[in-house]
Amino acid sequence: FSQQFPIPTESQLTSNIDASTTTIPVTDGSLYSANDVVIIDKELIKIQSIAGNVLTSFTRGATLVASDSVQISQTEASTHKDESTVQICYVMSKRFLADVLADVFIAVGLSAYTNLSQWTAEITEWNSNAFLYGVFHEPEDADKIINKLLTNYMVDLWLDQATQLVIVNAV
User: What's this model's pTM, rounded to 2 decimal places?
Assistant: First the structure.
């Protein structure tokens, strides 16, 4: 759990961009995918496409909206300086708690310990509306993120020695 989530992106702008720029030059375009959301300074930007080391964004300064029309975040387009970090974000758009926990485990290399079917069944029984909205944009230790989620939803987890799988239990 000493890994960070979201995984720190080791890519930066290769030139200054202003608030109207929709082509974003980066040091390593291979780290990104279409529809990723990135943050540069305090601006969230949704990527439309990638060509080499150039990201093309959808409209800058747009609002992120979940599939059920809940507003997740809104930022304004702004200028950014050369060498600013272009960090990939983890967006939760009506994402079920068990899936978020699994995504964190998988991202930090602990997929072998996940038990998504048990997690989903237990959390659904406890709180079938345990959906999350928001954005993780600042890499943080995975254990801190997991502890916050577990505490907020009153869920415990432990490693079952017999199966070597992590079990969740709603309190």
Answer: 0.91
